[in-house]
Structures are given as C-alpha cells and as structure tokens.
Amino acid sequence: MDIKHQVFVSSTYKDLIEERREVIHALLELDCIPAGMELFPATDEDAWSLIKEIIDNCDYYILIIAGKYGSISPEGIGYTEMEFDYAIETNKPILSFIFDELDNLPSSKVEKTELAQSRLNKFRDKAQKKHCKFWRTAHDLGGKVSRSLVQLKKKHPSDGWVPGRYAADAIMLREFEEMRSKLAELELINLKGINNPPVGSKKFSQGKSLYTIHVDLKHSAKGALKSTALPQTWDEIFSYCGSILNGECTDKELISQIKLCFWHAVPDKIEKFNSYPELSIPQVYFDKIKLQLQALGLIMEGEKKRAVSNVSTYWQMTPYSKSYLIQISAIKT
C-alpha cells in the first residue's frame, strides 16, 4: 500500500532557508509530507496548541540546529527547543542534525550575546542525546536526512497516511459494523476455550467457500495495472496463517501470511509481470478476513503479558482451531 508519512521539520528559519529547502526536497523524494511551523509566529497559547497538534499528527520529527537559538517564549525557552521537548514528551521518533563547525558560520548566522550562545550550547548538548548526526553544507544535510529517515522508518514503522483509493467506502464500513455485531453476539454466547465451532457460525462463509479480493496487477510487461480478482477458500487462508499462530503472532505477521496466500492465487500467466513486494492489498480486506476468522472461532487475540510500551496487537489459535487446522492440513489417505 502506498503509505505516506508526515515529518515535522523543526529549526530556526531565516538562517536556514537553503538548508530547509534541501531537507524538504529530500522528504518529498521519499514520498513524505513535510510539516513545520517556522513561518507561524508562536506568540500565544493558541498558536502553541496548534504547533503541538501538528506534531501529534506527524509520524517523525526532525531537528536542525546551526548557529541560532531562535525566538524566546515568555517562559525563557526557545520555541524550537519547546518543539523538541514536546516531541520527546510524546515519544516521537526523532532525528537531530547539528551543524559541525560553528566557527565557519558568517556572523549574521550566529548568536551575538553570551546568554543566547549559552542557551544554544545547552540545546546542542541536549539534542546530541538523541539520534544525532553532524552536517556542514545544505547538500550534505539533505543527503544525511534522506539516509537517516530511511533507517528510522525501518526501526520505527508508523501507520502514516493512506491514499483515499484504499479507504473503506460506505458499503464496506456497513459490512464491518454488521460483522462486529455478529461477532459480539457470538462472544456473549460462547465460552472462550470451547473445543467446538461457535454457536451460529454455520451460517457464515467458511471451509471451501471462496473469498475474492480485487487488486491492481499488470497483465503484460509494459501493460497498465488492471483490477484482478484473486479467489481463495477460507480453509486455504486459515492454513497459511496456522503456521505462525502456534504460540502468538503479531498483527503484522498475520497480515503478511494473508498477503502470501493471495499472492499464490495470482494466475500463472501474469505472475511473471508482477512481484510479491509490489502486491498492494487494501487494508480493508485484511480487516474483513481477520473479523471472519474470529467469527468462525479460528483466531482470538493473544493473552500473554507484555510491557506496557508494547502496543502491538497479537493473535493466537483457539482450542477449536488447533484441531480444525489438523483436519484441513493433514494428508488424507
């Protein structure tokens, strides 16, 4: 899926116009959405509330420091430093980029007073406690931002923004609500751990019944993408997931197995024109499949205790699904 991430770029402004241009160019090349409030005068409570809201809505935070500390709030702290402190407070993944040789900056780009210099030096020291790199030119800064952000996105994946073509329409949302309602009824009726299919689940699509998704695939070497139907049975979908559900697996791992299942449904005649990493399945299909597997009593949320900071969703088999997996996967005589 074509996910875009929003990145807040924090710095002083007038002394770093060229540098910010390079950084924004690097972000756009990575399909990121730059955000920053350097042109918005943070001189009152409402403005600062807006800045915090924008940082909250960003996936990543980039700090650029050179020879200026910047404008000061009534509390005696610079607004750039306030943004940095707020990013730390809200646990945003942070990249800091600090100019390496202050002595080489022109006098117009450095602080004149001892107080401002002292504040700047303390801020530089604070920023170095996070992931930090030093830069010397605008071009050098742009390159380091680009490489560092690629690594940060791998280390700290984020939901980002999903293009409208992948958003659920009114019909799908209504189907979700109906399935959630049915699932809630089943959970009230069935005791967790029962070794039989949930009461009432026979009316749901299952077993050898097909579930078909539609994705965009190429049908020739230079052809345009075409909507393509990929059918799989519910048993086939669950058998792909079964191998990682022994124990517990993350939501991301479960989705990966579902994606693999449908990749293997790509017709042989067009498979060579496409690749598994490029297969883009709208999230709405994954959500419907997970709900259906829950309604059939084949998966349930994990129960192992984990650190409070771990906010991932985990899945596991039910007692019923363990025996069911053996039935559909074992080699028959």
Short description:
With 333 residues, this protein is of the alpha/beta class. Helices cover 42% and strands 15% of the residues.
Write structural notes for this entry.
With 333 residues, the protein is an alpha/beta fold. It folds into 2 domains: 6-155, P-loop containing nucleotide triphosphate hydrolases (Rossmann fold), CATH 3.40.50.300; 164-329, no CATH class. It contains 11 helices and 10 strands. The chain has helices spanning 17-29, 45-56, 79-89, 114-127, 138-155, 170-189, 234-245, 251-263, 268-271, 283-295, 319-329; strands spanning 6-10, 33-35, 60-65, 94-99, 132-135, 210-218, 225-233, 249-250, 299-301, 314-317. Strands 2-1-3-4-5 form a 5-stranded parallel beta sheet, with helices on both faces. It has a 3-stranded antiparallel beta sheet with strand order 8-10-9. Strand 6 and strand 7 form a beta hairpin. Helix 6 (170-189) runs parallel beside helix 10 (283-295), helix 7 packs across helix 8 and helix 7 crosses helix 11 (319-329). The longest helix is centred in the middle third of the chain and has 20 residues, at 170-189. It starts with 5 loop residues before the first strand and ends with a helix. The mean pLDDT is 86.
